[in-house]
Amino acid sequence: MTVHYSELFGLRKDKYAALNDADVESTHWESVEARAPFYLFIPRDYELEAEYERGWKITDAMPVHSVGLVTARDALAIQWTAEDMWEAVQAFCGLSEEEARQTFALGPDARDWKVSLAQEDLRSSGAAFEKVVPVLYRPFDVRFTYYTGVTRGFICRPRPEVASHMIGCANLGLCIGRAGQVMGTAGWNVAWCTRYMSDFNLYRRGGNTLFPLYLGAEPHAATCNTEPCTGSSSGRVHNIDRGVLGQVHGTLGLQFDAVRVPDSDSTFGAEHVLHYIYAVLHSPTYRERYAEFLKIDFPRIPLTSDVGLFRTLCEKGRELVALHLLESPKVNDFITDYPVPGDNVVAKGHPRYVAPGEKAPGAKEPLNEGRVYIGKDNPKEAKKGQYFDGVPPEVWEFHIGGYQVCEKWLKDRRGRILSYEDIHHYQKIVVALKETIRLMAEIDAAIPKWPIE
Asked: Looking at residue 226, what is its pLDDT?
């Protein structure tokens, strides 16, 4: 099928004028071929597409996957702490249907979520604190929910087929967005990792799909145990397609070890595959080179034939995972200060960023380093605005899943008092993002040419 295509850029008034003067005959048309499966009515580099499609499609490479859980009522089903969640469950169970609706501002019932069904789920399953579990709600933002695994219960869509593998031990999973929901100026950035189940709306436009690394041999047991699960000794098997493992073996000559994390030069494990994937997905050149294809489907991962490059990317991916889970010791080496004492409340209209070279409120001289304010000076109360000092501009601007992370994390806490742990958590995020920027550049520098060979 041949499609005739033309495009017009510019200001609205200029486009209106051009369209007013043109017609079908005078318009310069370009013939484009619309091919299966997407039949796109736009020009497309099919040679580059063929190169891209030689890679593993992530949904094939890690065949067990599902979109993140959908609560349908986050204000009730997602809480800041395990204790907050347990208190909400107890209160919700003890109220009549209409009292619960009013108390928790739940609004009208939806097709797949009803107050009566949510209460029945809690009562019939036997409310227990052990069912309070962590959930990755937003990047760097782990909160708590109450998990029964019942569809159309307390949680509208709990996705037990995948969530069951993320509850009971500290598994590892990839969170991948489909079709580049947040391309924009920040480019494709819908790749993250988690120890826990994740929310469907992890990214700004939703669509998060969770790919667990290991699959439990037994049904889930709701517990907050954080002991890592690796290899068959934990009763779990890996979620890496045999064809992918065969390709790594055939291309690189490495032997797969499913029992433990291999440390031999001649072997590789499931963790290496995940780390390699994670590194490739964080290559700026990969994201730019294949931007058109990342817009419309899940990403594909090219495999190098160079053992040295494979090992390097595995290591870079491992470092990124540790940073993004805030498990790397590097995140404890703060590059920021929080010098002003106060009530630690994130004020309305904040956070606000003052870049290096700009003047802070009330200052006579420009700043040498970036500063994130969570409040402003209040002379009447002799109160100085509190801030995080030393936040680099590139870190402040860094986006994950369409969110400007350093702004989003604080913005979600407006009106809340930041605890000692919260203040340290934010400072860890700043370090993790600074190191992420460094590693992304090192990943690109390690790949000598594209396509990866």
From this structure: 38
Instruction: Tell me the torsion sign for CA atoms 272, 274, 279, 280.
Output: positive
Pairing of strands 387-389, 371-373: antiparallel
What is the distance between the alpha carbons of residues 194 and 200, in angstroms, rounded to a whole number? 13
The CA distances from residue 391 to 1, 372, 422, in Å, are 53, 7, 16
Length of the chain equals: 453
Please report the pLDDT score of residue 18 as a whole number. 72
Q: Which two tokens stand for residue 9?
A: 């850029």
Query: What pLDDT score does 13 carry?
Result: 76
Per-residue confidence (pLDDT) for residue 34, from 0 to 100:
67
Q: What angle do CA 264, 325, 339 make, to 5 degrees?
A: 130
Query: What are the contacts of 361-369 at 24+ separation with CB within 8 A?
Result: 361/385
CA distance 372 to 379: 20
- Bridge-based pairing of strands 267-268 and 255-256 is parallel
In the predicted model, residues of the chain with pLDDT beneath 50 are: 182, 217-233
| pLDDT of res. 256 | 95
Contacts of 168 (CB under 8 A, 6+ apart): 216, 220, 221, 222, 223, 225, 229
Report the pLDDT value the prediction gives residue 406, as an integer from 0 to 100: 98
- Sequence-ordered list of residues with C-beta below 8 angstroms from that of 327, at least 6 positions apart, any chain: none
Q: What is the pLDDT of residues 395-436, one digit of tens each?
A: 999 999 999 999 999 999 999 999 999 999 999 999 999 999
- Distance between alpha carbon 158 and the CA centroid of its chain, in Å? 18
Structure tokens at 410: 């604080």
